[in-house]
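Work Package 4 report. The design task specified in the project plan requires that, given a folded chain encoded as structure tokens, an amino acid be chosen for each position. We show below one input record used in the internal validation round.
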């Protein structure tokens, strides 16, 4: 599973209260927390990506409320957020100014506890892994999730979509025997069409749920009103890209990394792009022989 580095809004265009600054958090050098760290001094900055232990996380918590932090990245540490730790962290998070939180590889024992504190906090952009609980999306504008079981979580996800402006879902691209039933596909697609999303990532959805016979419906997502960015990487779209409607709606950026596209598929997309306002088409890692991998119109 990969998360394309290129498919992100430029950091200087982001609203820190609504958008998830993927560039700043992902590319920011991690600060290694040493023993006897001066937490007050360390947290006196707006953005931090920390390398720390479970014990050090608890040591940091009391200093969060008075910190200057707006963006906090705790991924890469494989922290275990059990019930006790989640209460301690959540209680102090609620008193902080943090608006963007990345705990995407943390082992969260109870997502309902996380949700309780997220709802009371200033966090508007959240990165996690695993399942959802009802209400988890209600106070967010940006949500990033890996390894989400869409079959189990489709009800919670679709009920919370109305609150989001940015949704990124990354699925394991290993082919699975699990399939989304037609009614779940329709439920998900209808919720997307009715949403107010400005950016959407559905990476690896087709192989994860064996949707090779349903690839065409993904193409209809292109014309969601108001959608500016769309990433359909790792979905084996192949010739299904011919189903993309000409004009591409309001879309400005389209990412199609690793979709088994041929030169013929690329020519088809170029023709459709001529009538669109899309300015970037990322088609790297496809089966093409031309050098024109990125088109800027």
């Amino acid at each position: 599973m990969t998360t394309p580095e290129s498919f992100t809004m430029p950091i200087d265009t982001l609203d820190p209260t609504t958008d998830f600054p993927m560039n700043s958090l992902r590319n920011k050098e991690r600060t290694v927390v040493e023993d006897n760290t001066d937490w007050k001094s360390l947290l006196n900055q707006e953005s931090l990506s920390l390398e720390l232990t479970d014990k050090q996380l608890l040591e940091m918590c009391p200093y969060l409320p008075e910190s200057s932090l707006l963006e906090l990245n705790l991924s890469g540490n494989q922290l275990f957020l059990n019930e006790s730790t989640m209460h301690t962290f959540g209680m102090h998070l609620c008193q902080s100014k943090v608006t963007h939180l990345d705990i995407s590889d943390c082992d969260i024992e109870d997502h309902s506890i996380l949700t309780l504190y997220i709802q009371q906090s200033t966090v508007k952009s959240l990165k996690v892994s695993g399942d959802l609980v009802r209400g988890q999306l209600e106070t967010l504008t940006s949500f990033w999730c890996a390894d989400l079981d869409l079959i189990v979580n489709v009800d919670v996800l679709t009920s919370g979509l109305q609150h989001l402006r940015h949704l990124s879902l990354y699925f394991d691209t290993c082919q699975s025997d699990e399939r989304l039933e037609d009614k779940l596909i329709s439920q998900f697609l209808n919720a997307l069409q009715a949403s107010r999303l400005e950016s959407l990532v559905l990476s690896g959805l087709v192989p994860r749920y064996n949707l090779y016979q349903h690839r065409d419906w993904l193409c209809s997502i292109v014309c969601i009103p108001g959608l500016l960015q769309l990433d359909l990487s790792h979905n084996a779209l192949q010739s299904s890209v011919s189903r993309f409607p000409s004009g591409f709606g309001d879309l400005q950026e389209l990412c199609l990394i690793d979709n088994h596209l041929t030169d013929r598929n690329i020519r088809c997309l170029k023709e459709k792009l001529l009538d669109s306002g899309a300015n970037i088409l990322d088609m790297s890692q496809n089966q093409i022989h031309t050098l024109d991998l990125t088109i800027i119109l």
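Residues 1-27, 289-297 have pLDDT under 50 and may be disordered. Validation will be extended to a larger panel in the next phase.
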